[in-house]
Every structure is written in structure tokens, then in C-alpha cells.
Design goal:
Radius of gyration: 19 Å
CATH superfamily: Electron Transport, Fmn-binding Protein, Chain A
CATH architecture: Roll
CATH topology: Pnp Oxidase, Chain A
Number of helices: 5
Helix content: 25-40%
CATH class: Mainly Beta
Number of strands: 10
Largest sheet: 10 strands, antiparallel
Distance between the termini: 18 Å
Length: about 190
């Protein structure tokens, strides 16, 4: 059995892309606030390495509020084809400004303007209100130099648990669970 679930995750994600899975970088992000109430939504994975799994968002959104109150999260990737999923659980850290700046600069101009226009998770009077904010951002930043909003940035989910699940006949799926221990990983098979 392999002892590096991060390396396995990378292989599985590449396999999913090769198999034609739509948006293999899409993941469910589950968070909970201080009150313990959970919420989940789809976000995009924007990097993975031995440190963990990275994503970016408006830090004043509902997910940002929940991560401030309770800095833990769970991720789920599901790829069909090839009939695999990965679960990740662990604490969450805000990424440094320099890393958030570098990623923000790599985004298309329209997406950077959208980050200025959207007060994510806040009520809107109308769709036109959002479009007016977008047009205001276009006027404020008429060229390609669109700075990162101070409320927008990245997060790192530091995996303490990673589960790799593969579809099996007769619902006899294969589940391999890895727990971080002393700088390495302990592996255990789980019944489906």
C-alpha cells in the first residue's frame, strides 16, 4: 500500500481529467460556524502540495465568517468517471498576502473585477445592482492592473485525515483512510 495520500490524490485527479470528468478541480467545501451549524458549497482547488489544499475566496463571505469562527473544514472531490472520491478533513489557515496576490494576478481581468463587484453572500436589491458595481470596477481599473481587494484571499486546508474511495462491484467499495501521525501517515482500510 502507498503511504503518501497526497501523491495518490494527485494521481487520481490526473486520472479523472484524463477520463473526461468535468471540472476535476471542483470540490465541496464544508464549514461550520461558532454555533456548530454546517454549510457546504462548491469551490475550485487552486493548488495542492504536502502542506495541503488551497482555495481562494472573499474572506467576508459566509464561508469566510465561518472559517474565522471555526477554522476547520472538510473537502469532498467526486469524479465520475472514473468512480472515485476523496475526502479531506483538517484545520484551515489563511494564506499569506503575497501568495494571495500572486494567484489573484493570474486570474482573468474580468474575474478580478468581479471580486471587487461582489459583496459575496450579502443581500442584493437586484442583479442590476451587481452589474452596476462591476461597471464601477471597470471604470476604477481601466487597464489590466486590478489589485487584489483587501477582503479577498486564499486558504490552506491542512489535511489531518484523507480518505480515498473507489467504486466496487456489489457496493463493495474500497476505502483507504490515512491519518497524519508524527510527520507521516497511518493507513487503515474501512468497510464500505
Amino acid at each position: 500500500m502507498a503511504d503518501d495520500p497526497i501523491a495518490l490524490f494527485r494521481e487520481w485527479m490526473a486520472d479523472a481529467a484524463a477520463a473526461g470528468a468535468p471540472m476535476p478541480d471542483a470540490m465541496t467545501l464544508a464549514t461550520a460556524g461558532a454555533d456548530g451549524r454546517t454549510s457546504a458549497r462548491m469551490v475550485l482547488l487552486r493548488g495542492v502540495d504536502d502542506a495541503g489544499f488551497r482555495f481562494y475566496t472573499n474572506r467576508e463571505s459566509r464561508k469566510g465568517d465561518q472559517l474565522r469562527a471555526n477554522p476547520h473544514a472538510a473537502l469532498v472531490f467526486h469524479w465520475q468517471p472514473p468512480g472515485r472520491q476523496v475526502r479531506v478533513e483538517g484545520p484551515v489557515q489563511a494564506l499569506p498576502d503575497a501568495e494571495s496576490d500572486a494567484y489573484f494576478e493570474s486570474r482573468p481581468r474580468e474575474s478580478r473585477l468581479g471580486a471587487w463587484a461582489s459583496e459575496q453572500s450579502r443581500p442584493l436589491e437586484s442583479r442590476e445592482q451587481l452589474m452596476d458595481r462591476y461597471r464601477d470596477a471597470e471604470q476604477r481599473y481601466p487597464d489590466d492592473q486590478v489589485p487584489r481587494p483587501p477582503y479577498w484571499g486564499g486558504y490552506l486546508v491542512v489535511p489531518e485525515l484523507i480518505e480515498l474511495w473507489e467504486h466496487g462491484e456489489f457496493r463493495l467499495h474500497r476505502r483507504r483512510q490515512f491519518r497524519r501521525r508524527d510527520g507521516g501517515w497511518d493507513e487503515q482500510l474501512l468497510a464500505p
